[in-house]
Amino acid sequence: MQTLLDKLRGKTLPDTVAGSNGRIEAQEIDVSAKYSGRLAEMLVEEGDTVEAGQVIARLDDREYRAQLLGAEAEVLRAESALIEAEALIAQRDSEKSVAAASYNRIAELYHSGHASAQTLDERRGSLRTAEAAGRAAEAGKAQARSSIAAAEAEVSRLNAVLDDMVITAPRRGRVQYKLARAGEVVAAGARIVTLLDLTDVSMSLYLPAAQVGRLAVGDDARMILDPVPDYVIPAKVTFVSAEAQFTPKTVETKDEREKLVFRVKIQIPRDLLERFERQVKGGVRGVGYVRTDPSTPWPSQLQVKLPQ
Fold first, then answer.
1. Contacts of 257 by beta carbon, 8 Å cutoff, 6+ apart
2. Are 293 and 37 in contact (CB under 8 A)?
3. What is the pTM for the complete model shown?
4. pLDDT, position 105
């Protein structure tokens, strides 16, 4: 059976145009659950188009919400402890002031001969005890502040977990596969859906070194797809491999399979994909073309032609 590439070759393509069979490749994005849990809601179906940030599914978050209530209560407890510590510091400061005044009076009396050394030592000991109690109260205040910071960090962590229990689309795309159902228990890292990125659609060509050596990233390219051979789709060269490889079994070229070729990726512009995103499908086979001499115009059969 004559292939599309053979038919086009029969129309005498110029030597400066190189072609290769390929297939449409759309980037797939696996959307996974970060935490394990029961899937409470599944809000999309296969074939749905979702926007970036749109909710795809929700996991049962009751356990984490209970933990959050406990963490918030711990913040309140730590804040109460801080208030108590500050009150205790005020009390210890007052006691230290009284002990210092008492020690100073006894010291004056001692130097004038009206107080004993034992009394002076007792007042000195009382002052040192009050100072130590003040330092202990300051340490209690620092500990209370540390407890507040730790409790607030736990609240932030649990809020982040609750956010992650709501699974959203990382970018605009089409739901290709729905891999879980509401009510199922999923593991951490388990895939929920697979999205097809409608902004990243390309075709890989496999060309010999003589042709690849004249290509550059950004060069114009063309695609003709088997289901719609009457249309010519514009594209751009976005990648040229630096290493040769054997042609994959799924791709046919005019060269023998044993020959080494280089992979060239041609990509459809995003603005064009936005116009025809409902028609975008991965795996569609066709032919891709590049020009080894960019100054040569495209032949008539490879002029851009799109549906109205």
1. 246, 247
2. no
3. 0.68
4. 86
Reported confidence tier of residue 281, pLDDT bands at 50, 70, 90: confident
User: Percent of the chain beyond pLDDT 90?
Assistant: 45
CA distance 258 to 64: 58
Cβ partners under 8 Å of residue 225, min gap 6: 24, 231, 233, 284, 285, 286
**Tokens read off for 195:** 């999205």
| List of residues 6+ apart from 37 with CB closer than 8 A | 59, 60, 61, 63, 165, 185, 186
Residue in 178, 179, 169, 196 with CA at minimum distance from that of residue 24? 196
* Sign of the Cα pseudo-torsion (295, 296, 297, 298, in order): negative
End-to-end CA distance of the chain: 31
Q: Is the pLDDT of residue 252 over 70?
A: no
> Is the predicted pLDDT of residue 282 greater than 90, yes or no?
no
Q: How confident is the model at residue 11 (pLDDT cuts 50, 70, 90)?
A: low
- The full 3-state SS of the chain, as one line of letters, equals CCCHHHHHHCCCCCCCEEEEEEEEEEEEEEEECCCCEEEEEECCCCCCEECCCCEEEEECCHHHHHHHHHHHHHHHHHHHHHHHHHHHHHHHHHHHHHHHHHHHHHHHHHHCCCCCHHHHHHHHHHHHHHHHHHHHHHHHHHHHHHHHHHHHHHHHHHHHHHHHCEEECCCCEEEEEECCCCCCEECCCCEEEEEEEEEEEEEEEEECHHHHCCCCCCCEEEEEECCEEEEEEEEEEEEECCCCEECCCCCCCCCCCCCEEEEEEEECCHHHHHHCHHHCCCCCEEEEEEECCCCCCCCHHHCCECCC
Instruction: Write out the two tokens for 303.
Output: 């002029």
Neighbours of 92 (CB within 10 A): 20
What is the chain's length? 308
Other Cβ atoms within 10 Å of 283 Cβ, number: 9
